[in-house]
Amino acid sequence: GRKCFYCKKSLAIDEVHLDHTRPLAYLWPLDVHATCLCAAHNNQKQDKFPIDFYTDAQLHELSTVCGLPYDELRQKRLNPTELNRLRMSLQEFAREWDPRTFAATARKITELQPEIDLLKELETMNAALGADIRAQIAQRPAFEE
Fold it and tell me: What is the DSSP code string of 47-92?
């Protein structure tokens, strides 16, 4: 209905923001379960899980709107399929991603599954690549004038 799910404000088509109902930061894609939000609420939600942003009543409503079971909307978990894909191609991801993106993803994974340390796994597979990523992460970003 082109309304923000959170505040119910009517939105013009160019005002609609599709939110990753389950956060991209935890390896969930933008999929058929996306949530329509206004810019303000999309920015407020950021990479929060539904349970950390919506009320219980909103979670029940969101379940009917987006098609994800209520119990799943209450969970904080990583996407196991994407986590496995990432770990199986860890060196490739480390080479292709910006080092800060790699580090941020590694932190989010460790937050929910402390036993998984992507940087240590990378260093075990390829010590030189792991050391290079750590060195790049340690550098402060240059600011453009």
Answer: T--GGGTS-HHHHHHHHHHH---HHHHT-----HHHHHHHHHTHHH
